[in-house]
């Protein structure tokens, strides 16, 4: 019976990966995405990899509507990319995360109804990571432009329409960075404020994406 159950489970896993369910990644809950992104940032900076992995799985299922096994597989790729980048000290080090990001976005593209370019998405993801880490080397606005470019590629919305999303997401990062410089570090109140700002960011993106979809429907 155990062998039969194992064989059945393996067969289900193979079938899930071989025949992924198509999903419209443009439909997501901004409340849940903001909550999970805040939790992921907290786990990342605290170097708590197991909670980060679980939060990644939940985000992938909620934001991109991935099936459970595929979400677990992609969470592993994303976590590996983040770990490689976190310990990097140069652009050559940072680029070692790119193959994991390309596989990550390639797998999302395989199930997405939105026709984005996974290699470009991977490059843009790594780009904003670098801009954020090297903030003192970039003029104001570079991080916002990098974040808008990634969202524009993923959701196929003009980048100029995503400034509200990008600027609020950048603001949330700035709150965390400034709080981390204090002697007491980042407190619970800071994380609550970060989540509130991220909610505004993701709500702005969800609203803009919905508007674009409605415009496309009228034109069709």
The low-pLDDT segments are 1-18
Order of helices and strands: HHHHHHHHHH
The overall number of domains is 1
Helix proportion range: over 70%
Question: What shape does the CA trace take?
Answer: globular
Number of helices: 10
Radius of gyration: 18 Å
First and last CA, distance: 54 Å
Fraction of residues in β-strands: under 5%
Q: Can you count the beta strands?
A: 0
Main sheet, how many strands, which sense, barrel?
Answer: none
pLDDT average, as an integer? 89
Q: What is the SS-derived class?
A: mainly alpha
Explain what you see:
The protein is mostly helical and 220 residues long. The chain has one domain (28-214). Helices cover 75% and strands 0% of the residues. The chain is built from 10 helices and no strands. The protein has helices at 2-18, 30-45, 49-63, 68-86, 91-94, 98-111, 118-133, 142-155, 163-180, 188-219. 32% of the residues are buried.
Keywords:
220 residues; mainly alpha; 10 helices; disordered N terminus
Describe the protein's topology.
Layout: H1 2-18, H2 30-45, H3 49-63, H4 68-86, H5 91-94, H6 98-111, H7 118-133, H8 142-155, H9 163-180, H10 188-219
Brief summary of the model shown:
This protein is 75% helix and 0% strand.
């Amino acid at each position: 019976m155990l062998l039969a159950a194992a064989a059945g489970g393996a067969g289900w896993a193979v079938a899930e990966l071989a025949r992924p369910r198509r999903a419209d990644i443009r439909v997501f809950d901004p409340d849940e995405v903001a909550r999970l992104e805040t939790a992921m940032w907290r786990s990342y900076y605290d170097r708590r990899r197991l909670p980060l992995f679980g939060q990644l799985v939940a985000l992938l299922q909620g934001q991109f509507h991935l099936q459970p096994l595929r979400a677990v597989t992609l969470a592993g790729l994303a976590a590996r990319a983040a770990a490689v980048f976190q310990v990097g000290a140069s652009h050559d080090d940072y680029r070692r995360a790119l193959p994991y990001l390309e596989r990550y976005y390639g797998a999302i593209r395989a199930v997405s109804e939105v026709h984005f370019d996974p290699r470009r998405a991977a490059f843009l993801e790594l780009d904003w990571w670098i801009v954020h880490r090297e903030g003192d080397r970039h003029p104001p606005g570079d991080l916002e432009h990098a974040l808008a470019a990634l969202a524009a590629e993923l959701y196929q919305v003009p980048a100029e329409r995503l400034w509200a999303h990008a600027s609020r997401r950048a603001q949330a990062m700035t709150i965390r960075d400034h709080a981390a410089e204090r002697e007491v570090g980042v407190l619970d109140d800071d994380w609550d404020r970060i989540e509130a700002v991220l909610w505004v960011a993701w709500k702005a993106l969800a609203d803009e994406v919905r508007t674009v979809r409605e415009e496309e429907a009228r034109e069709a």
